[in-house]
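thought: fold this chain, then report.
action: predict
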Amino acid sequence: MCVRVTQTSCAFCPWDTLYDAHTALRKQQESAEAAQSRFVPSLRRYFSAQVASQGRNGFDRIETCRQALAALDHCGWQRSFHQRQFHEAYIRACSRVFFKTDGHGAFARYQKQLLELNGWDHIAQEVLVSTPRRFGKTVSISMFAAALIFSTPAVECSIYST
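observation:
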């Protein structure tokens, strides 16, 4: 189900309009759940997300993720310099995930081009963030998880924090 919120502007972020739209969306979801009355298996959700992301490739999904993170800067979550660095490191580490639904071997075919376009010398799958308190590590990974799920609907995201 896709519902578009209109008459909103990130420059002013009218929270009352967003709250009303959220309430209306929630009521629609509750009525749809009541009508359906059965659990949709995760496999079906996975395939419907794949259908939704068809026609896009890994490069498009990376750009959509970056745009989603940049949009947060204009809607009240101004990212710090370090958070921007964390997000670029997360994108690099998750680059394989963005190409996961492009078919077998897509990442291997486009890896060199991906490195050149982003100015990367290698792609590591791990990111270690070790900073003092109040650097925004938890908020940073939350922002990235939201942007990742937004840009790549077929992804399942697990976050382990210690």
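thought: worth noting. The chain has seven helices and no strands.
final: tokens above.
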